[in-house]
Each structure stands twice: as C-alpha cells, then as structure tokens.
Write a structure and sequence with these properties.
313 residues; elongated
Length: 313
C-alpha cells in the first residue's frame, strides 16, 4: 500500500508539472527594449507591460542593457521557455537579426516597435514612427525659425540603430543643398545625456562663435547639450531634441529647450502588442505590415499634443 501510494504521489506530481508548465509558458509574451537606462525605453516598457496584461497575457521583461549579445540571450531564453510571442525594440538593426530569425524559425510571432529589422522577412509587423519624417520636422523647424540661415551642431544617435540613421537622414534631407544652413559640427553622442554634454562641450570649445542651433537625435543628448550651453553662460542657442520626454517638455515650457519631437511611443507600444495578440488569438494578420506614425514638432505653442504632458512637473 505504501509503495502504491508513493507511486501515485510521484505520478500525480509529474502530471501536474507537465500540465502546468506548457500553460505557464504559453501565456507569456516577451517584451524587450534596448536599455532601461534610457527614460524613453522605461516609458515604452511600461506601455508594453500594461497592454500585455490588459490583453490577458503575462509579460516577461527584457532589459537589453544597450548590448545586442544581452538582448540576443534574452530572446534565446524566451524561445526555450516557449513564449507565445515577442514584442521588441531591437538594440541594433543588423546585430539583432539572427536572434529574431531564430524566433521566427521557431514559429514564434515577432512584432518590432520603434526600431525595424527589415532583413528578417518573417517578422509579423513593425509599428514605429517615421523617423525620417521626424528628422525632417527638426530640419523644417530650423528653416522656419532661421529664414536667413543658421550654423548648426548635430548630435547623432547610437551608431547602427535605425532611428539614429533615419533621423539623421531626415535632417540632411531638409538642410543639404541649402547654403545658408551649415552643419559646423556633427558627431554621435550615443543617445546618452553624459555624452551629449561632453561632445557639446568639446564642440563649443573649438568654435570661435557659438552656433545658432543644436539639434539632437534624442532628448537625453539635447538635455546634456543644454547643460554644456549653461556652463558657458551662452544664450540665444536654439536646442531641439527628439522624443518628448517629460523633462524635455518641462524645459520647452520653461525656455531651456526650444522644441522636441513627439513620436507617440506609448501608442506605438500598445499597437505593437495589440497586433501581436490579434494574431495569437485568431491568426489575424495586420492590414499593414509596416505602420509608421508621423512625428510632430512640439514647441511652447502646442505642448498640449504631447503624449506625456501629464507627467511634467
């Protein structure tokens, strides 16, 4: 009787384990961002997780730590766990392609948000901002503010990241060929505030005259540039960021920055999860495989359109 009971207990425990494990894994969705050291991606992760829970799934959070090998390892672990889907903002366009291809080959649907990896054809959808148009919005604002021309410092984003590439392209689309607008200094500051500060300090130190404009591919770099300008007691320099972070919106309101570009990251993230879940639940494929929202320049005059205005202190 004792041997029979012991076998029954073991068999029951094994059955419960086998029954529970697939269901536990099957209800999970991996949400991954390049790095939670950036406020932009903290906001994106919150939006991912909120929408995943709202849709009845359990989020697995992945902080890429600005490392493609780390983000790759997180994807491989998620594949092993048998997650139902992946929604991701990839750290780098090319470096993340093999891991995303592994997921696609494992029949795990993938939706990219913010940063696209076009080389992986099996990705279900991409939801993002039209970053070329975002860069053009920065350029058009410079032209409208300085009709007689301007000298410009251009702080570029993380090398290899599609938003950095596209925003820079958009800016040049507007300014190139216009002799009145001269980019007198152009260098990456890696989307980081401390580098935005140090790169701007180095640029200003080497200039006989300060520029009329500092344009940055994200708000963190713009805020760093603002500190460099303040440290030199310079005034009258227009500082234009990108991302509409609450801190940047406060500076636009108070005059520390001239403008930022709103790309609606919360909306991007929610739409990405909704697209993924629609496919998971009934196989619905998106009407548009690539959906790009149009970024808008935010100044003092239209702060009310900013997605995160409610967070501004």
């Amino acid at each position: 009787m004792r041997k029979y009971s012991r076998r029954l207990v073991i068999a029951s425990a094994l059955a419960l384990s086998l029954a529970a494990t697939p269901a536990f894994a099957a209800d999970k969705i991996l949400s991954s961002v390049p790095g939670l050291s950036f406020p932009f991606f903290v906001h994106m992760m919150k939006a991912f997780k909120a929408e995943i829970v709202k849709q009845g799934y359990e989020p697995i959070e992945s902080d890429g730590q600005v490392s493609s090998p780390k983000q790759t390892a997180d994807i491989e672990a998620a594949i092993t766990q048998g997650v139902k889907g992946i929604v991701i903002s990839p750290n780098e366009v090319d470096a993340m392609a093999p891991a995303l291809q592994q997921a696609v080959d494992a029949k795990i649907p993938v939706v990219t948000v913010d940063r696209r990896v076009p080389s992986v054809e099996g990705i279900l959808a991409h939801i993002g901002a039209d970053n070329v148009k975002g860069g053009e919005a920065q350029g058009n604002l410079i032209v409208s503010m300085f009709p007689d021309g301007a000298t410009i410092i251009n702080l570029q984003g993380q090398p290899g990241a599609s938003p950095a590439i596209d925003r820079n392209k958009g800016l040049h689309n507007v300014l190139d060929g216009k002799d009145k607008y001269k980019i007198v200094f152009e260098q990456t500051a890696g989307f980081a505030r401390d580098k935005g500060l140090s790169v701007t300090e180095a640029a200003l130190a080497g200039m006989p005259q300060p520029p009329k404009v500092i344009v940055a591919a994200n708000d963190d770099m713009a805020l760093g540039a603002m500190e460099a300008v303040k440290a030199r007691n310079l005034s009258g320099i227009a500082i234009i960021g990108f991302d509409a972070l609450p801190e940047a919106l406060a500076q636009v309101r108070d005059g520390g920055m001239t403008a930022t570009i709103e790309q609606f990251p919360g909306k991007q993230s929610a739409l990405g999860v909704q697209t993924l879940v629609a496919f998971l639940k009934d196989g619905t494929k998106p009407a548009q495989k690539v959906l790009l929202l149009t970024p808008v320049a935010v100044t003092k005059d239209n702060l009310n359109i900013a997605e995160r205005l409610g967070e501004v202190k």
